[in-house]
């Protein structure tokens, strides 16, 4: 029974911290635009990523002089 006098206030402190963090996230704009990130995965990137199996491009003249 004595442990409840310790655990209940600790649990209430954790709940208060979680609620405070939630309201901070809402007020700082974390949840303002949920559609952009959801649609971003559907579109291709502008620059294709080179795979490891592709050979390196030929070096330019400026790179050979260094």
TrEMBL record:
Pfam families: FixS. It comes from the Bacteria. InterPro entries: Cyt_oxidase_maturation_cbb3 (IPR004714). Residues 45-66 are annotated as: Disordered. PANTHER family: FIXS PROTEIN. This is Cbb3-type cytochrome oxidase assembly protein CcoS. It comes from Gilvimarinus xylanilyticus.
